[in-house]
Amino acid sequence: MLDSKPIFFDSHMHTPLCKHAEGHPVEYMERGVEKGLAGIIMTCHSPMPDRFSHRVRMSPEQFNEYLAIVQEAADAAPEGFEVRLGMESDFFPGMEKWLAELHSKADFHYILGSVHWHIPEYLDAFWRGDPVAFRRQYFEHLAESAESGLFDSLAHPDLVKNASPDDWEFESMRSVIGAALDRIAKTGVAMELNTSGMNKAYPEMNPGPKMLRMIAERDIPVVIGSDSHTPLRVADQFPKALEQLTKAGFETVSVFKKRRRLDYPIPLVQESLATQGSAF
Fold first, then answer.
1. pTM above 0.90, yes or no
2. 186-202: b or e for each residue (b if 16 or more CB lie within 10 Å)?
């Protein structure tokens, strides 16, 4: 019999400070307890300078408020349940110094890096009417984000398939994706399997099964995140995500603590969620 105590974390969720999420971190914590998790990592969208993408993130002046509400959830958590401080930070060329300084301002457990192709600033800089060229640029930036040394893991790594979902064909991008993954593998940075992709324009997890297999082939570790913008989505579809990891060839799944990666055998995580949590 496997040790079935809670051991796993949901490593991606937000707060109302980003202006497009609902629920206090305490509510996310309570849902995590219901789901049989050992903890959650709050990763709200980082502030950025000069009102960059300001409609979908906290302002720099709200950073201390973010730290406070995450700590409030940690203080309210039952014994044995952890609420860890994280951040989802945008990779955008020229912003590296800002992010490095931001990440030094608190004792983060986890920094999740994102290339958000859909924000106005990214589209203004890189969209030229050619979906294929846009996708190539996105995966170039994904590799650069890993090479920057700023992040522990890369969020929803094929998010760009939602830019033009009707003509997304994975095989036409396989070589581009492979080249990016080769670069990422050399950095030691992890990647995320994001379950919220099931609710997007191209309805599959991010990344999809084919890219996930390529990640496994390169021994790149993977973290699972729900990308919850409401407490009800904490740990959403985690059993399915674990099945997809197994089918792709993974034996372990990862969580971060104090910016260090911890790996757990997938069967142990599956047993823990099945016996400790409410119905998925």
1. yes
2. ebebbbbbbbbbeebeb
Per-residue pLDDT tens for 41-88?
A: 999 999 999 999 999 999 999 999 999 999 999 999 999 999 999 999
Distance, in Å, from the CA atom of 45 to the CA atom of 33, rounded to the nearest integer, reads 23
Tell me the C-alpha distance between 254 and 263, whole Å: 4
Cα Rg of the chain (Å, integer): 18
- Which token pair is 56? 């979908």
Q: So where are the chain's domains?
A: 9-276
Answer for the pair 7, 272: CB distance below 8 angstroms, yes or no. yes
Phi-psi region of 132 (alpha: psi -120 to 50; beta: other; left: phi over 0): alpha
Query: Does domain 9-276 correspond to CATH entry 3.20.20.140?
Result: yes
